[in-house]
Amino acid sequence: METMWLLCVAAAVLAWGFLWVWDSSERMKSREQGGRLGAESRTLLVIAHPDDEAMFFAPTVLGLARLRHWVYLLCFSAGNYYNQGETRKKELLQSCDVLGIPLSSVMIIDNRDFPDDPGMQWDTEHVARLLLQHIEVNGINVVVTFDAGGVSGHSNHIALYAAVRALHSEGKLPKGCSVLTLQSVNVLRKYISLLDLPLSLLHTQDVLFVLNSKEVAQAKKAMSCHRSQLLWFRRLYIIFSRYMRINSLSFL
């Protein structure tokens, strides 16, 4: 009897969650039409390594596609930590193709100043300078990147946030250019997949993207392009991580 009661409660919570997603999407459309995350914007996704776009940001990329955003991608390293840089650059382009990001809109910075190394601190001013150039050249309206926690705590991820934060706080971004950061969550929430949906709904401040089953398959296909990275624990990540299905983002 108790088990049946718990199942009923769980079903009610999930149903409530999905209804709230629908309602949130309607409210988000109104907000977008208000101009801050408008349809057909030029959005720049800023990542540190090849595979970040699929491992962490797939729901955002596919959600922006629904809104008819033109998505650009700027990757600040070739992911050469294990001397696989050339392979990983090719994998990134394959993944972007799956996610619908035009290859002409993808730039990979392969520069020794930005090594793929969690033990190295990237220079904030250097990152900010290159990032601002890319924003201005491409007429970017929205910048998407990691938050202060970097999702995984990787120092390269956090360096991107620091650079974007500096540009934003110093008023150097072009007029009308907004910044969205991907919300980091604790380890438990990170690996409970769609079960995190109610909490995501409660804690999302600005934008929430939730993938449908077809889009989840697309996200997994994009991640599978990164063959050099598909070790056993990353295969488990694909199955259990909320970031393959849900992205919560906040404006700076």
From TrEMBL:
<dbReference type="Pfam" id="PF02585">
    <property type="entry name" value="PIG-L"/>
</dbReference>
<keyword id="KW-0378">Hydrolase</keyword>
<comment type="similarity">
    <text>Belongs to the PIGL family.</text>
</comment>
<dbReference type="GO" id="GO:0000225">
    <property type="term" value="F:N-acetylglucosaminylphosphatidylinositol deacetylase activity"/>
</dbReference>
<dbReference type="GO" id="GO:0006506">
    <property type="term" value="P:GPI anchor biosynthetic process"/>
</dbReference>
<dbReference type="InterPro" id="IPR024078">
    <property type="entry name" value="LmbE-like_dom_sf"/>
</dbReference>
<protein>
    <recommendedName>
        <fullName>N-acetylglucosaminyl-phosphatidylinositol de-N-acetylase</fullName>
        <ecNumber>3.5.1.89</ecNumber>
    </recommendedName>
</protein>
<keyword id="KW-0472">Membrane</keyword>
<dbReference type="GO" id="GO:0005783">
    <property type="term" value="C:endoplasmic reticulum"/>
</dbReference>
<dbReference type="InterPro" id="IPR003737">
    <property type="entry name" value="GlcNAc_PI_deacetylase-related"/>
</dbReference>
<dbReference type="GO" id="GO:0005789">
    <property type="term" value="C:endoplasmic reticulum membrane"/>
</dbReference>
<comment type="function">
    <text>Catalyzes the second step of glycosylphosphatidylinositol (GPI) biosynthesis, which is the de-N-acetylation of N-acetylglucosaminyl-phosphatidylinositol.</text>
</comment>
<keyword id="KW-0812">Transmembrane</keyword>
<keyword id="KW-0256">Endoplasmic reticulum</keyword>
<keyword id="KW-1133">Transmembrane helix</keyword>
<keyword id="KW-0337">GPI-anchor biosynthesis</keyword>
<comment type="pathway">
    <text>Glycolipid biosynthesis; glycosylphosphatidylinositol-anchor biosynthesis.</text>
</comment>
